[in-house]
Amino acid sequence: MIEKRTEKTERKLESVDQRMQERDKEVENSLIQMEMERASYYLRFQNVVETKEEDLTDIMAETIAITLQREKSEIIDELDEVYRVYKNYARRFRLPREVHILARKKVRDIISLYREESMIYKGKEITTLKQVPKRVQEQRKEYHFLAARLNKNNILFRWIIPEGMLVSWQGKKIRIDTLEKAREFHAQLLGTEEPGSSREELESASQEDQQLEKNRTDQEEEEGKKEERPQEEKRIRTRAQTEARNYRY
């Protein structure tokens, strides 16, 4: 009798634990969706030539306007903050500080157009990057072993929200949104590449992928720790904000 009660209690506890895990996962996914929504208003630009006493808002508005074939005044109205940020890699390779932009509208049109046409300033091509929240970066680390293998094999994929990746393989779109699916697909890729390989060789290749990706991740984290603190960033507000501030005073 006591054993039956114990088993029943254990089953109830397991059920409660499972529901709590599912609830935590739902909360985590909701937070990721919110952070990605916020990030859709941010843009990062690399290799923007830096000069003394530059009007960064005017420079970026004109450069974006030329690329999007729009009026510069329209672009200025859509920019909320424009500022430069020191990055460790830029200091190491003697590159200009990154330009970060917080826009009033989502910046998908800039990203999509940039894929088709390069953005140029003072003869230098500008690299445009999307802002990826820290929470999303941490989650994607778990899939880096598969990303390393896909990149090595030149297999196209894109990250999906809230978790996982969409892989283009053998004329199909494969959705991989759990670590179990990622491991299975990784093993499938290794088996396809070397069908005659032993299990030990496949496991060795898998460990090599994970180690390579771990080394890359560790390097990124080390660089991240060396970044300047946010309060050391030089923020340059748009003309509209500056005029509004002056008017208040």
TrEMBL record:
<feature type="region of interest" description="Disordered">
    <location>
        <begin position="1"/>
        <end position="24"/>
    </location>
</feature>
<feature type="region of interest" description="Disordered">
    <location>
        <begin position="190"/>
        <end position="249"/>
    </location>
</feature>
<protein>
    <recommendedName>
        <fullName>L1 transposable element RRM domain-containing protein</fullName>
    </recommendedName>
</protein>
<dbReference type="InterPro" id="IPR042566">
    <property type="entry name" value="L1_C"/>
</dbReference>
<feature type="compositionally biased region" description="Basic and acidic residues">
    <location>
        <begin position="211"/>
        <end position="249"/>
    </location>
</feature>
